[in-house]
Amino acid sequence: MYQKYGFAKYKISHGSAFDLVEFESLKPSGDPKIDHVKALLYNSDRPKGAIVFIHGTGQKNFAPLTYYPKKFSSSGYTTIMPVLPYHFERTPLGQKSGIAFIKGTDVQLAARFDQAVTDVMTCVDYLESIGFKTIYTMGFSFGGMISTITMALDKRIKKGVFVVSGGNYEYITWKSIATRVLRVSYEENKLCNSRECEKKHELFDETIINFKSLEMLENMPPCFTYDPSLFAKFIPPRKTLFFTAMFDLFIPKRSSDDLWERMGKPKRYTIPTGHLSSHAFFKHFIFNKTLEFFEREE
């Protein structure tokens, strides 16, 4: 799991606003619609570095979040923004964008996270292939979870910014309004319940302490293998920046705090908004603080 073999073949289409980078996923699901990856590449003149920006889950957040890649490119950073599997044009027929990451068994979710992380690492491959050595990542909401796992595994990523994101799926599954469909699915199929989940997570802290190699994922409960909090210890706090929304109903406070604490309590800004309104009202603040962080020498 999360081990990437081989390299993708990229197709580049040049446009006036951005280039389109296309490739076939190195961790295919078997559905050609899901497995064909498209990523928007916002080039910068005389770039100082490159950024992989990861969007959140859902149906309408891709276009608004292009604000960040556009601003980064105009500030000296070439930025690539991939469409994650099971989202937007990569959504299976008959499904809603992103629903696959909040519905299904833990085994299915583990495979979907594996593909998403692999696709992001393949974008890092592309940036490296065109000459970039300074590469950062920024993830918004669900994108922050994917960015966390990717940065923990891929040491080519020098810094990471995580916006209204979190970890520890016990809190996310049973406390977030966004995962109600997942709770219903678990309970209807008798796959899990809050009491069983709580009992399973009694071993979570010990599992994190003992986690040292990807091979160990095979012996963990599947829901542990895609939990950002499992991977957070591999990211030095000096290399991260965190944003938390004060009134977030999608990422519970305990979830946000859990990921932040396991990252070593890096610099964090608390925004007086809800989850979605954090971008609507504080996008300039988030961008400016992120740019300062990326440009600050360690």
Walkthrough of the structure:
The protein has 298 residues and is α/β, with parallel strands linked by helices. Helices cover 40% and strands 17% of the residues. The chain has one domain (11-295): Alpha/Beta hydrolase fold, catalytic domain (Rossmann fold). The chain contains 13 helices and nine strands. Helix 4 packs across helix 5. The chain is globular and about 55 Å long. The mean pLDDT is 92.
Summarize the structure.
The chain is built from 13 helices and 9 strands.
Key attributes of the depicted protein:
alpha/beta, globular, 298 residues, 17% strand, 9-stranded mixed β-sheet, Rossmann fold
Topology, please?
Layout: E1 11-13, E2 19-24, H1 32-35, E3 36-42, E4 49-54, H2 62-65, H3 67-74, E5 77-82, H4 106-129, E6 135-140, H5 142-153, E7 157-163, H6 169-175, H7 180-188, H8 194-200, H9 204-210, H10 222-225, H11 228-231, E8 240-245, H12 253-262, E9 267-271, H13 277-295
Parallel strand pairs: 4-5, 4-6, 6-7, 7-8, 8-9
Antiparallel strand pairs: 1-2, 2-3, 3-5
- As a whole number of angstroms, the C-alpha radius of gyration is 18 Å
| Relative strand content | 15-25%
| Rough outline | globular
CATH topology: Rossmann fold
CATH superfamily: Alpha/Beta hydrolase fold, catalytic domain
Helix-strand pattern, N to C? EEHEEHHEHEHEHHHHHHEHEH
Low-confidence stretches: none
Distance between the termini: 32 Å
List how many beta strands DSSP finds: 9
Count of folded domains: 1
